[in-house]
Amino acid sequence: MITTPTAAVTSGAFRVEIRTSIEIDAAPAIVWGVLTDTAAYPEWNGFIVEWTGELARGERQNVLLQPPGGKPQRFRPRIVTLDAGRELVWLGRLGIPGVLDGRHRFVIEPLAGARARLRHEETLTGALVPALRRLLTETTPTGFERMNRELAARAEAAAA
């Protein structure tokens, strides 16, 4: 059974932080397997509809986001942290540093009873934050929550 996801958004002049989480009735290894099987994303993920690239620290990724009600957005973040089974962090930039930088983080935490919590977070900073504030504080968190629910459903089906 998927528990209700949680979301929190904080916003400053040139910074937005999005923090979402969901508890999943599947072992952390299963959740990690679903998260990192990026080739399968088109089958189930309505937010990150495409993700290619070698999952290794320092490697560039090719990611296509489909924000709810918005236009698809393609970008090429670089993986800055990869702790297998636990954490994956990428850093994406729009143009040069300081225009719009996004540190996207997935963390899987073990819970009692062969369950897991997925934390799906992003910190966005830069000169474009004020112009994109509505997209970043309303649309993007909705996309995170959608992906969280879809990932949980896939992991729980795999665990059954």
UniProtKB/TrEMBL annotation:
Pfam families: Polyketide_cyc2 (PF10604). It comes from the Bacteria. This is SRPBCC domain-containing protein. It comes from Microcella alkalica.
